[in-house]
Structure formats: structure tokens, C-alpha cells
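Quick question about two entries, pasted in order.
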Amino acid sequence: MAFDPLQQRGIPLDEQLRDWRELNVTPIDPDHADPYTRCRIITMNGIETEAILFSHQLARHCPDPEIKQRLARVRYIEAQQQKTVNWLLPGSSSVLETTIAYEQVAVDLTAWVARMEPDSYLRQAYQFGVLEDFDHLYRYANLYEMIEHRKAEKIVDGLTEVMPGRPTYLHHRDPLDNVRQPYDRSVTEPLSRLHALTIMSAEQQTMNFYMNVGPTYMEPIARQLYQEIGMVEEEHVTHYESLVDPGESLWEQLLNHEYNECYLYYSFMETESDPKVRNIWELHLNMELEHLRLAAELFQRFDGRDPDQVLAPALPPPVTFEPNKGYIRELLATQIDCTTLGTGYVKEAHERFTRMQEAVMAGEKPASERVIDDNRAISGREYRLETEGPHPAGLQLSR
């Protein structure tokens, strides 16, 4: 039967507080864990972080002390959930190994969403973005081989290919061309709302991660690569957040956030291969059911509408981490040379794009290109993981 979170009873909020022992979860084993378990952890960390940040913003615009207190109570539990999820990541993994996992999330989560998205304009936005994250994976994999002398297949486990996407230096666009057209909340499918919120949250977490870990490196090329890709991630957050209809009230947005958390915890509970991690997904789902009930009460009180007018009558099919190699290859063959112009997409380097490129590059080769050159010089060839044959766009391996 379809799972309707609005009809389910969760754990009462008064019973959700956990002590330090309960929060001190055992991290996954990086050498034996399913790579997609790590991807689910990274995704839910981003989802919980967005929920917390949104709740803070809502509280800052709320004059009612009682509502502020209610938001604070739920937000504290969300913060415990975020710590639990993020602390599942092993401390033995290097920052670069976690970075490569972040990009595997960006590739396979965004590709899956693009495949499932019913709206053609929104689908194009995800297709455009995924080819850029795919290239970031390739750049970081070469940095990983160069400074840690290891290969990214240890992390992605052959589930995701590693080869050039849309070249990273071509991702630097005029900010005007990163703003997309939002969906119309009055007619859009409920699934499209969930997709937009999910990918926005995941990219926001990646942006935050890179802006914080980038300067911790001593190697100049690593610092510069994180800085360059970190700026692209800012563009991606702008790209995805602009898809959300700004006409949604803050209470409608709160409702969407809580429903999306239920959707993703349910999805990952259904697809998780690690029993201990699955137990955490199930526990957090039961917490989120109560958070959703409280958000629905606020939505009814302040928007005067029934949640069924906004939300799907039941959860869509589970979000699934799975290989998307054929789909990515098709996009590489047909869309690798796209850029944006206003809210649309073109295949020509227009004047505004060219001006931005000249201003940012200042006549120098960017770190994203130099890291490939440097690894070729050190390793004898650039690093790729092409499990399905030659590059579909004809980009040959350089030695």
C-alpha cells in the first residue's frame, strides 16, 4: 500500500530527545560499506542542514514567541538528527575521499531526479547541472591520484564513471544567467516540489563543505581547485533555488520541508543495505512524521488551507541511488556544449558569457585545467574510469 505520512503516527515530540550515548553512532567502514550508503548519508546531512537553516530563517521572520518556541523545539531535534547522520561518516576518510563521495552523490542523485522529473523545463535544469558535477568528480579524482596516490575507483566502486563532463572552466557564467524560471505552485506536480528541494539542499551542502574545507589544504593546486569548484557550487545553488516558486508562503515551505524529509527517510529506509544505518533512517522517519504533523497544524492555522491541497496523497516511489551510466553518456553526447542565457539554454558562447570568462580567467589557465596537466606530468596520464567504453563525446584519453 502507498505510504501517506499525513496518516501515520510518529514519535511524540516530548519523547524524541536523545542523550550523548545515543548520538554517538558507530561510523560506517569506508573499506567495506556500500558506496551508496555513504551517498545516502551525505544526502540526508544536506537535507537536515537545510531544514535547520530554513527553520532559523522562519524564526527570524516570526513575531509570535510561542511559535518561535515550537520551531526551536523541533529544530533542536533536527540538529540532533543532523549530527547523528553526519557522524556516520568515518573519520579515517580523507577530505578528498569525502569530496569524491559528495560528487558521486551529485551525479547519481541529480541524474535519478532528472530521469523521474515530470516537468520538461525542470528536467532540463537537472540535466544541465549534472554534467557539471560529473566534471567536478573527474577533476577531484585527478587531484586525489596526484596528492594521495590513490584511485577514485576505491570510492565510487565502479558504480559511477569518472571522465570529463562539461569542462569546469566553462561553468563560470554571469550571475544573471544562473537564475532559472520557477515552477508554478498552483499547477506543478507535488513530486516536482520534492525534487527541487532535494537537489537544492544537496548542492547547498556541497557549497558549504567546499567553502570550509578548501583552505585546510597546503598544496596550492588543491586550494585553488576547491576555490574554483566552490564558486561553481554557489552558481548551482542559485540555479536550483530559483526553481522554487517564491509565491509559496513560509508555512507552505515549512510543510514542504517536513514532507520531503519524510519522503527521503522513507526512501532510504526502503533501499538501505546496511541494517544499522537502516535503523537510523527508520527512527528518524518516525520522528519526522511528528514534525510533519506539527508543520501541518501551522500551515492550517496561518495559511487557512488543508495540507492535502499542497502535498501528494501518498509518497512517490522511493528515491533510489543506482548507476546512471547510460543516461549520463546520453547527456554527454547531446548536451556537453550547452550554456545558459537568461532562463534558457543555448549552445553558443554569447557576449555576456564571454565577458565573464575573460574577467574571471584574466588570461590564465584555471586550476580545473592545471590539475589535469599536473597529474599527467606526475602519473603519466590523466585519471579516468571509463567502464562502458570510450567517451561518448569523443574526448580521448590524454597521456
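Here is the second entry:
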Amino acid sequence: MILTKLSNIANDINTLLFPHACFGCNDRLIRGEKLLCTVCRHQLPLTDYTFNEENPVDRIFYGRINIKKASSFLHFTDYGIVKNLIHNLKYKNQEQIGEFLGNWYGHIIKENDHLPKIDYVIPVPLHRKKLRKRGYNQTALFAKQLAKHLASEYLEDVLVKTANTRTQTKKSRLARWYDNKSLYEITNAELLKNKTLLLVDDVITTGATMELCAEALLKIEGITLFIASIAVVD
């Protein structure tokens, strides 16, 4: 009891000297809050997509790639909590946000139990130059947490990006497709034969990047492919 009280006092002093801010609204966090304040947690726009009924993420890929099901955890808008989270995750060295969100969504997916047994969880890769510059793949910890909850194996290097393309947030869907064509390759196709995979990205906008990664994976014999992301642009 005494040790617990001392630990709480030490934590309060640490928070006072080095206050942590909410990644959603930038307000100061209080004891018990982690990464997001209680208000932002309650306001986080969850999609309620859990690989069961047809959803708007599925419809992005209709007629484009032969996947079984697609899903996203959050709705992404031009302003708000999700945009702030993704910005901090990708550009402010806050990789722990991916772990936090992956643990949350992984728990939801596991509880709903609509997915079949997933053999491997694979993140959309960064080119080695971008990975070296950023220091981490922003999708990695999110994907790792999904793998943990699904009792699946996480595979990081089986799908690789072969060219370092420019940022693509302002490009049209067609321009993105031509820029990214044949940029993704498989390093160990034999390992993936006849397996069920979950391909994971941070944000799905037009779906062009996921489409090209999926095309590379679907060339392998016997692949069953599902798609997930942290967020989807409405």
C-alpha cells in the first residue's frame, strides 16, 4: 500500500515536471490517461467495422482486387482527433500510438470473432530509404498488435517496396496507380502459399497502395487475403 502511494506520488511529480499532452487535443493528460485524454477517447470516431457485414472499405476495392474482406478502425477527416493521431504517428516519432490503437482494435476484432484463422499479418512496407529516414514503419506496431490478438505471426520483410516514391496525398487515384505500378515485390512466395493473410496499412484513401500490395500477394498460389487499416478517409 505504501509503495503504491509512493509510486503514485512519484508519477504525479514526474507529470508535473514533464507534463504529457493528449495527442488528440493537446490538453494536458492526468493520472490514468495515456496518449489520449478521456474526452478524446470518447470522441474517437470508431467505424464499428469488424469484418462481418459489408462496409464502405469493402466497396473501395470492389472490382479491383480479389480480397475476402476489408476493414478500418477509425474514420479519418481533414480535421480532428484522428488526423492529429496519424500526424504524430507518422511525423513526430510517436510510434507508440500505433501500438495503442492496434491493441484497441485487435481486442475488438478478437471479441467479435468474424475473421477466420489468420496465418500471417503483413504491414504495407516503406522503401528502405524512407524507413531509414523515419526510423520506423508507422504501420508496424499497429499490425503487430493485431497479430498478437489474432494469435497470428507478424511478417515484416516478406513484402518490400522497390522504389522510393514521393508523397502521394495530393495525387489522383490514376496518377498514384501509375507511379506505384510494380513497386511491391514478394521475397518469399513459398512461405505464403495457401495461407490466409491480413494486409495492414495506416490510412486508406483511394486504396491504390493497398491494391498494388494485394496484387503482388495474390500472385501467390492459394492466397486468401483480408485488409485492415488504422483509418479510412470518408
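Reply: The beta strands are 69-76, 120-123, 153-154, 159-161, 184-186, 196-204, 224-233. Residues 6 and 234 are 47 Å apart (CA to CA). Hope that helps.
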